[in-house]
Amino acid sequence: MRKKGCRILILIFIIFMGYLPQKAPSAELKYPTKDITFVVPVSPGGGFDTLARILAPYLSKYLPNKPNVIIANVPGGDWIRGINKIVRATPNGYTIGMFNLPGNLMGQIVGTADYNLEAVSWIGCISVVPYVAALSPKSKYKTFQDVKAAPEVLVGSTGLATTSAVGVIIALHTIGIKPRFVLYKGSSEIYVAAMRGDLDYVQQAYGSIKTYINPKKLLLNPLCIFTDKRLPQSPEIPTIAELGYPELANFISTYYAVGTTPGTPVAILEVLRNAFDKAMADPEFQNTIERGGFFKNPIKGKDMPAIVKTSMEKFARYKDLIMQYQYHK
Predict the structure, then answer these.
(1) pLDDT by residue (tens digit) across 3-48?
(2) Where in the chain is the domain with CATH 3.40.190.150?
(3) Is the entire prediction scored with pTM above 0.85?
(4) For residue 153, how many other CB atoms are within 10 A of its CB?
(5) Residue 315's closest CA among 180, 117, 36?
(6) Which residues pair with 252 in a beta bridge?
(7) Element (H or E) spanning 130, and its range?
(8) pLDDT digits (tens, 9 = 90+) for 73-127
(9) CATH number of 34-128+254-323
(10) What is the CATH number of domain 130-248?
């Protein structure tokens, strides 16, 4: 009788334990176990490449197991080639990448790209940086008034689905100037071409162009910065508002965003976001990007979907204008 009672109690215990919620195996405990590829969809040397290379060792530092985070430059096709490598990867957290927002959205808006950036698993945004317009020292145009009077200006771009190109099109359209784009693999090639005299006009993010507009050694002639207030870092550069176009102040900035493959498991995404947030708070990292001309204004991954959605709505209004220039080289 006692044995029978014991068997009944054991059976009841087993059944009871079966109904208790069981903790699923955690991806966090196993991830990462190998190196992570950090895709940069442009050639080496520009602002996006620079920030990715600054960030990579800090991600490694704060990720569990300290994996190597290896930069892979994948230029080509208006960023499309590199972005497709990110979004089409296996969603396991081992392929992450840089995104150029809002510019990369334009390929989606005008239908030249088949990716959906609203589906990206966003890790965060490193920095948000305003744009600076500058002239080649060898251009026949020397002042803002010269540019306004020009029938056409030669502009360097890494692709028409980039924030710089979208900003140029909207800005020069508002001012009344027609740009003609010359495409390059990366912003470093654009600066060389401008210094050589192959281009008239360059419009790039402050962090990228900073070295070339240093008043101690001017390599390009700065025209204005697209803000409503002068930057403390470069107080000698007038704002676009001062030049009579306040509607263009703060209208477009570059978001140096980091994301991974759509459908990445939440547990893995949280590991990446946690490491990213710790990197952003690292004083050494902050000092490094600030010295490089980037701003210490990171955005958390959870806030990026709303920014992407708002940007899609904002720049979709310029679809017809952008389409006039798309791939007209």
Answers:
(1) 445 454 444 444 444 444 334 444 445 899 999 999 999 999 888 9
(2) 34-128+254-323
(3) no
(4) 20
(5) 117
(6) none
(7) strand 121-135
(8) 999 888 999 999 999 999 999 999 999 999 899 889 988 889 999 999 999 999 9
(9) 3.40.190.150
(10) 3.40.190.10
